[in-house]
């Protein structure tokens, strides 16, 4: 079993950027080389700005190279909560922005001919009990009212069997707008597009400090400094000491994934005939999909721990057990890959943008960053290139997470509570 991301193991980098010189000056310096940073760099460079991406490790090393590759519709908090929190008009606009974000990926894939298996295979939201299925039915009406095409359907019984071969779920909701992609190939494709458009991509260039210099900022990196007119922080769940104000507002929550051996086309078609991007209604959600080469990718918050080889191996055991509960047919399937990464959860589970200490930021994708990071990178890039007057979500209140001073000591306690709730719901079928 490899302790590395399947996506990165099966994709070719567009180049080696570990020795790209850090330029002395830039119009925009971006801290973080994931989907947010790279997508912003593409936009800035093609509009003629001198832009440098400063990445402490390698491009896509953070969550962008470690996720499920699932670009799924809908807000992390769901429509009901969004309407009660923001009012109907704003909630609908937010929902549609998440939908539009998938089109942003599609546009980039087409425009730069990025070969990354992008496919609108659809999203499958699964209910573990009758109460959650009723919740999906309510959501279906709401989404069909606001979506451009009223094509979201709820399934149970034999209809569900046409979507998934699992005894674990009582029903599901299908939204055909969801998409899957090979996220390793996509990250490398974006990096190639940014480099071709003239962006400076600097790997192994961690930013240690940012100091105001007149109207500009000097960023000191591990291999040289750059003076920039504008700065974009794109550090997501890997936000650290450089930006303490942001660090208190983002919870870095570990999420883990296992990937099986290739299952062959017959078994893959039996388990997930429509190859949709699936996630379920548990508090500690399981999410899964087929990879382009017919392996099952199965993820979840297996343990409330950070990713390291020991932690990833322990999480793999938990996830393997969960996977065989959902798909008993995989009892003897070999696990070829396991890894983990950090998801950037905010208190309200919404995206946040704005400025702190002279630097713009975009983060808080709360598990929806495949499309939202790509989309927000583009929006931030357009703004910083002078092509738009503002960016979405700016000016929203961004509350700190109580007790989060950089190391979220309380996460294992929250995780244990969520395990208890999931166990209770399984016993009682979700009845209160
Ligand atoms: C296991 C897992 C599964 C997920 N599955 C999904 C999914 O299926 N669908 C979905 O929509 N979302 C998913 N996500 C979330 C999604 O991957 C992220 O929201 C998204 O990739 C964030 O992109 P980003 O560019 O903002 O940040 P990242 O990709 O995390 O990049 C941040 C980068 O900043 C760098 N950095 C930090 N500090 C510094 C510094 N001082 N100097 C220089 N560089 C620095 C880090 O090295 C890192 O590479 C998942 C996340 C994980 C971990």
Automatic annotation (TrEMBL):
Highest taxon of the lineage: Bacteria
Positions of the FAD dependent oxidoreductase domain: 27-380
GO cellular component: cytoplasm
One matching Pfam family: DAO
Matching InterPro entries: FAD-dep_OxRdtase, FAD/NAD-bd_sf
Protein name (database record): FAD-binding oxidoreductase
Species this protein is from: Solicola gregarius
């Amino acid at each position: 079993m490899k302790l590395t991301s399947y996506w990165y193991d099966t994709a070719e980098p567009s180049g080696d950027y570990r020795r790209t010189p850090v330029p002395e000056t830039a119009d925009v310096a971006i801290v973080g080389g994931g989907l947010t940073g790279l997508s912003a760099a593409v936009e800035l460079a093609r509009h003629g700005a001198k832009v440098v991406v400063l990445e402490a490790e390698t491009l896509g090393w953070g969550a962008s190279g470690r996720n499920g590759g699932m670009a799924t519709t809908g807000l992390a908090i769901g429509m009901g909560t969004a309407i009660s929190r923001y009012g109907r008009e704003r909630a609908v606009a937010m929902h549609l922005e998440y939908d539009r974000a998938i089109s942003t990926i599609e546009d980039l894939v087409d425009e730069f001919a990025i070969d990354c298996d992008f496919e609108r295979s659809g999203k499958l939201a699964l209910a573990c009990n009758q109460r959650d299925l009723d919740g999906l039915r309510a959501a279906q009406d709401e989404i069909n009212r606001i979506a451009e095409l009223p094509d979201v359907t709820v399934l149970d019984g034999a209809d569900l069997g046409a979507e998934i071969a699992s005894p674990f779920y009582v029903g599901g909701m299908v939204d055909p707008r969801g998409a899957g992609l090979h996220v390793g190939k996509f990250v490398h494709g974006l990096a190639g597009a940014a480099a071709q458009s003239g962006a400076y991509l600097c790997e192994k260039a961690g930013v240690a400090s940012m100091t105001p210099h007149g109207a500009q900022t000097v960023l000191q990196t591990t291999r040289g400094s750059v003076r920039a007119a504008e700065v974009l922080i794109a550090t997501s769940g890997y936000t650290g000491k450089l930006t303490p104000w942001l660090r208190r507002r983002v919870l870095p929550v570990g999420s883990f994934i296992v990937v099986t051996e290739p299952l062959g086309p017959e078994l893959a078609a039996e388990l997930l005939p429509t190859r949709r991007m699936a996630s379920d209604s548990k508090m500690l959600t399981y999410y899964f999909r087929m990879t382009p080469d017919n392996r099952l990718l199965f993820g979840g918050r297996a343990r409330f721990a950070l990713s390291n080889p020991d932690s990833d191996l322990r999480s793999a055991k938990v996830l393997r057990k969960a996977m065989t509960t959902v798909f008993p047919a995989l009892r003897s399937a070999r696990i070829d890959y396991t890894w983990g990464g950090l998801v950037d959860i905010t208190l309200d589970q919404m995206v946040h943008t704005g400025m702190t200490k002279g630097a713009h930021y975009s983060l808080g994708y709360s598990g929806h960053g495949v499309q939202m990071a790509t989309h927000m990178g583009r929006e931030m890039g357009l703004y910083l290139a002078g092509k738009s007057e503002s960016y979405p979500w700016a000016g929203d209140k961004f509350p700190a997470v109580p007790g989060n001073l950089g190391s979220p000591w309380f996460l294992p306690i929250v995780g244990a509570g969520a395990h208890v709730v999931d166990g209770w719901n399984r016993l009682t079928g979700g009845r209160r």
